[in-house]
Amino acid sequence: MTLEVFARALPKAELHLHLAGAVKAETFLKLARKNGVNLPPFAEVEELYRYDNLVDFLQVYDLVARSVVSADDFHLITYEALAHVANAGGRYVEFFFSPQVHQDAGISYETMFSGILKAMDDADKDFGLISRLIPAINRELTPDRAFEFLDLVLPYRSEKVIGIGLDYDEEPFPPAPFKPVYERAKKAGMRLTAHAGEAGPAANVRDALDLLSVERIDHGYRVLEDPALVRRCIDDGIAFTVCPSSTVILTHWRDLTAADHPIHAMLDAGLKLVVATDDPPMLQTDLAKEYRLLSETMSLDRRTLADLALNSLDAAWLDESTKRDWRAAWSNEISHLLTAGERAA
């Protein structure tokens, strides 16, 4: 069994996926033309997704988001994103979307939500892929706008709208000002996560834990700057959703083979890592490829990949009974995959 086949067959959850970042380039072009969004010059459609830093990436991300207008548009991009996860062997997904960028373009939350929810139901029916939605706050906007965000989101709280996140450009916009917003969301029963420690310092990871009371950290690479915080996260079982291709394209950590690459160092330190894609079509990847990349660049064996897949289930916001049942089933499936791989070798 090849590594590609193993990585695709491995049962796993996707816990760090941005909806607007999961739009195929061809779909982006189609929606932009339909909805009158001006695009930068390009010769081939793939050129629309070329950037080498987070700021330039976010400019394209906003163009993609502004190309999505109708409920049918939201259905299309959500269904395609979930199909992409299912094709890579994902069994469960918790995905972010950015309602504020759509709201600022005049789109009602009801329009966004109806298209997304129908696509989630259709993906469950067509692929057996269970999905949950995490509306994410644009940290570049004011905390007052974040409270308005909650006013949009909380009336639609359900088992499918499971929590909130905090994203966009981290470095100039630390987590601390969003403490009251997160306190209100927690009281309303929302699960909590935040992007921290990607572009910002280790202190942002600490503040996300202490001030925002998050249950897991998205990215979190710079936690390594604070050994005491690393030890605390290990002791508390904090999961970090790490995105290998994203680091190569959007950060200064370009070499996955380097021993000091933060994902490698986080693994070596014993932190609980969850492999994720971030923005798969925009980064030319999928969930299976991210597992394969780690194996090939960091010399991870298949047992380690299997452990990472089980981490994704442990960190998922599922009820404990479901997680227990799925873990038993996934572990059994993984044992057969590992045995098949040994026989093939």
Mean pLDDT: 95
Which of globular, elongated, flat, extended, rod-shaped describes the shape? globular
CATH fold field value: TIM Barrel
Rg, please?
Answer: 19 Å
| Number of DSSP strand runs | 8
Main sheet: strand order? 1-2-3-4-5-6-7-8
CATH class annotation: Alpha Beta
> Which structural category fits the helices and strands?
alpha/beta
**Uncertain residue ranges:** none
Distance between the termini: 8 Å
**Oligomeric state, counting identical vs distinct chains:** single chain
Structural summary, described in words:
The model has no long low-confidence stretch (mean pLDDT 95). It contains 15 helices and eight strands. It has an eight-stranded parallel β-sheet with strand order 1-2-3-4-5-6-7-8. With 345 residues, the protein is α/β, with parallel strands linked by helices. It starts with a helix and ends with a helix. It is globular and about 55 Å long. The chain has one domain (3-344): Metal-dependent hydrolases (TIM Barrel). The longest helix is centred in the last third of the chain and has 25 residues, at 320-344.
